[in-house]
Specification:
- The chain has 13 helices and 17 strands.
- The chain has 404 residues and is an alpha/beta fold.
- It has a domain of 209 residues: 3-Layer(aba) Sandwich (Rossmann fold), CATH 3.40.50.150.
- It has a seven-stranded mixed sheet with strand order 6-5-4-7-8-11-10, with helices on both faces. Strands 14-13-12-15-16-17 form a six-stranded mixed sheet, with helices on one face. A four-stranded antiparallel sheet has the order 1-2-3-9.
- Helix 2 packs across helix 3 and helix 5 packs parallel to helix 6.
- The longest helix has 27 residues.
- It is globular and about 65 Å long.
């Protein structure tokens, strides 16, 4: 029986997405023979309610100098993080706040703080991402954030008013060291703020592609509240965010330092009413995921049988789960177009579909795109309005499998 990585209690498996590759390991052709894979299963802790992967991929395999994702690639997320920066400063009651970001990537959020003169430091495990951040004027260092890292930062820079992380905490199985680090680094009145994909939204949308090696945890207010209490913190606020397919932003303060608002209790009650840890409800979720696989394969096969050309739109990390779980290869999707130079000329993880730059001429576009970047649907459809106006079609699988 699996053990909960967060609390040590019993965790029960409710979903098996099969053998999977590293989601962001876009391969050179000569690397195919030595590709790393693992079993992608999902469990739910019967004690604290934490939803998590059944197996842990070594962090050095996922987060390294060639990690390809850059936050600034999305205009919408750039705007989002500029607004976040302003809010984080408002969390502090000091005249000279110090903000530390865990998993700062290319420094998109911290650039706003740098522009306004706020003391800050970014921490990220990718040397290339840190290089991009420092080139943009951000103070950043390459490291995995844990207790030892936090103590060193506190000794060199002083204690922080805010420790912030976006789409990062869910990547870190060893949360005990991260929470201990936050406790060592924060001022007595400081806050730990993080935002990550919401288990409620993944459940509601059956967005199973949010489940991959980097997303070790799928947080809820229920599980985060239990996590906070075990480490001397308390969940004092929670806010739903309409980004990345639905996220929750959690604010943790030291126990007794701040009174919780009404939002945490309301969100926990909502999760309880939905039955997000109930074994029967979780079994139903697995059935919905399997039905999506069948529907997507049927639609792709029908599209190809009609003689229409198909390509993937955006070589996202989450597309690895879809392609490998569904068994979709070059026969159904001959190529995936992506704007990221580091991915172009490589092959998708596991299914080995070529990743290409977008064609120069609209005449070379396919008849149909499979939208892997569905969490940016509005932004993508606005950008590609001419494609749709010329009769191009889109296949989506979240929230439903459909052609538009």
């Amino acid at each position: 029986m699996p053990t909960c990585r967060a609390c040590g209690d019993r965790a029960e498996q409710f979903l098996d997405l099969g053998r999977q590759p590293l989601s962001d390991a876009f391969l050179r052709p000569e690397e195919v023979a030595t590709e790393f894979t693992y079993d992608l299963t999902v469990t739910c802790c019967q004690g604290c309610g934490m939803v998590q992967l059944g197996s842990e991929v070594p962090r050095e395999r996922m987060f390294h100098s060639e990690y390809p994702f850059r936050t600034a690639s999305s205009h919408r997320m750039t705007q989002h993080f500029r607004a976040v920066a302003d809010r984080l400063v408002a969390h502090s009651s000091t005249a000279d706040p110090f903000v530390v970001e865990v998993g700062c990537n290319d420094g998109t959020m911290l650039r706003r703080l740098a522009e306004t003169g706020v003391r800050h430091l970014g921490v990220d495990a990718s040397a290339d991402a840190v290089r991009d951040a420092t080139a943009a004027g951000v103070q950043a260092q390459c490291a995995f954030f844990e207790l030892e890292t936090a103590r060193r930062i506190a000794a060199e820079h002083g204690r922080a008013d805010v420790v912030y992380a976006a789409n990062t905490m869910c990547h870190i199985p060893y949360l005990d060291s991260v929470l201990a680090g936050a406790a060592a680094l924060l001022t007595d009145d400081g806050v730990l703020v993080f935002e990550d994909p919401s288990w409620e939204d993944v459940f509601r949308l059956a967005s199973f592609d949010q489940i991959y090696d980097e997303h070790f945890y799928l947080f809820s207010a229920t599980s985060v509240s239990a996590l906070a209490l075990r480490h001397g913190f308390r969940l004092v606020d929670v806010e739903h965010l309409d980004v990345h397919g639905g996220e929750l932003r959690y604010t943790l303060a030291r126990s007794g330092a701040r009174e919780p608002g009404p939002a945490p209790a309301a969100q926990v009650a909502r999760e309880r009413a939905l039955g997000l840890t109930d074994p029967d409800v979780l079994a139903g979720f697995a059935e919905r995921v399997a039905a999506k696989r069948t529907a997507l394969l049927d639609l792709l096969r029908s599209t190809r049988a009609q003689g229409r050309s198909v390509a993937g739109y955006a070589a996202t990390a989450k597309s690895a789960t879809v392609l490998n779980y569904c068994g979709i290869g070059p026969d159904l999707i001959p190529c995936v177009y992506d704007t990221t130079p580091e991915k172009q000329g490589r092959l998708t993880p596991g299914t080995h579909i070529p990743v290409l730059p977008f064609p120069d001429s609209p005449d070379d576009l396919p008849d149909t795109f499979v939208l892997f970047a569905w969490n940016h649907t509005a932004e993508v459809l606005d950008k590609e309005s001419a494609f749709r106006a010329d009769g191009g079609r889109w296949i989506r699988y979240v929230p439903d499998v459909e052609e538009v």
